[in-house]
Amino acid sequence: MFGYVNVNKESLSSENTEIYQSFYCGLCAKLKEISGAKGQMLLNYDMTFLIILLSGLYELEDEEKEFICKLHPAKKRKMRINRATEYAAQMNVLLSYRNFADDWQDEGQMRKRALMKVFEKEYKKIAIMYPRQAAAIDRCIKNLKVAEESGEYNVDIVAGYTGEMLSEIFAWEDGMWSDNLRSLGFYLGKFIYIMDAYEDIGKDIRNGSYNVLFETRRKNRRDFDTISKLMLVSMMTECAKAFERMPVVLYGDIIRNILYSGVWNKFEYLQLKKAKKEKERK
Hints:
This protein has twelve helices and two strands. It is mainly alpha-helical. The two termini are 33 Å apart.
């Protein structure tokens, strides 16, 4: 489901690109520290965004290191690590473990069961450290499963469960900005769920799998793309409002690049792909 919260590299300066990459590498290193080399397979852009957001909001002090990446050994790279990096890596493990468990329970995939067992020790340790976030992830995934199995097609209700989950993850520490962080996380979670459903709808139709957008598409076949985009724009408008209420100066350009541009990378790609297919048909 995750992987939509990325930068638009074409409109990001070289300096900010390097900063973004250094946070991404820092998350990779922290995942390895927490779970060993296997932890690096959990790396994603969504948690990188959370690190940069929290780092900018709380103006955290970074530890910077140069290193040689085994995947890109040609030249030295730089990583940035701070308290938010460790927190995001821990949330990454919690989310991944519960997704593995859910896939195992739903589809009986032995690979997912094996992955669940691989991360079980780390999951239990982190869940004790962050009971609020762990409980929210567990509750929301269970509620989402019930909604999907019952054929619930109210987009606000279904997407709202992912929103609730991310709202608790984004609210890192109680304080004066926690409500805004919750709001940003809530609408970003809804955006991610709807975008995922939009991307998968063709495949889900072919496979007969559940998709929350089925009814929207059935009732508005001709305007489905437009209606889907309006829903997504509505979610990101609320995200932007929540962000702009917070006094973020540090890394503000990177965060705005993601919220106002980067999150649309996938949608634009899907539109181009669809246009190409229609052209080939004609």
